[in-house]
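User: Can you help me understand a structure? I only have the sequence.
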Amino acid sequence: MTPIALSVNGRKVQALVEPRTHLADFLREHCRLTGTHLGCEHGVCGACTVLIDDEPARSCLTYAVQCDGLAVQTIEGFNADPIMQELRTAFSREHGLQCGFCTPGMLIAARDIVRRLPDADARRIRVELSGNLCRCTGYLGIINAVESVIAARASKPTAVTSQAAAPPPAPLQAFAPTGEVARASMAAPTPAPEEAHKGWTRFEESFVVARPPQAVWTIFADIPAVAACLDGVELTEHDASTAKGKMTVRLGPIQAGFSGSAVIERDDRALRGTIRGAGSDRGTGSRTKGEILYRLAPEAAGQQTRVFVTVEYSLQGALAQFSRSGLVLELGRRLVADFAANLNARLVGAQMRAAPRTPFNAGRFLWSWFIDELRRRFGR
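Assistant: Let's start by predicting it. Here is the structure, written out as tokens:
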């Protein structure tokens, strides 16, 4: 996984991505900007066209890591752009769209023509749009729409081709900040969970550890010790602020091994921290990313510690079909409870499980949950 930092529609985004991830997939799956469409995935149809540093580019042929430090603008980022507003009106008026699949890339290419070629005629517009294919319209309505916008702007001597960025769309979560960006994000106000992670699964839990807060805080800085308290986790590499490893999960006949990395932030004064990470399983093609926020508070006159935990994550791929909210929440709470039990055992010096770690058996848990539900509903 490679850390990248870029601007998407005027917002700073940091992420951990595989080097092979294309920009189009990053925008759609990581940033949830699904206005960028994937057609041929060979750079031929133009449906995936976006702006990279204000120049049109095929996002299906561009790697996300190539955009590190650059500015990317998708169709969602033009809401206040006057040229785009005129083009949208013209496309509707001239019947320049039908199914709409090619339209986002077509509009971005058309906007570039209007800005770059204010004297373009219909013939030149056809040449410029030859890299954007449409299976519905026959192109005449599209050509007429672009030509009408150019003519209308030419008739207004004071017309200005604005390059102003659109107002911010729905916030994009920076789930893996590094370096100075990470320190800045810790100081910034934390956005409301429903804004920061729209569509993610979220749950909150707390547990008590039989040690003072400072002792618990110290062990939380010991990454191998924390990993040892998590069933199915294997730590492969770590330092004070990052960790790489693998978590094995078994769900009936399916066994998935999520390999990934995480960035760790700690606030020593407030006794709180954040873990942001992402991972993938090649066997099932599933991907996940998430964030864990934890905070320590004294209890029993400072002799014990209550740990408050907030977990937010998203799951994509084959395993996402198991993400029914009720089961997922119960599964998450059971994981937290098992972690708390293992942590308490470690702090009192009990023998911990030896490596290699056994995979977390989610199937056994789901069956147990199902039996408990039947007993609860039927009073047996």
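Now, to help you interpret it: The longest helix spans residues 325-347. The domain at 179-378 is CATH 3.30.530.20 (Alpha-D-Glucose-1,6-Bisphosphate; Chain A, domain 4). Let me know which part you'd like to focus on.
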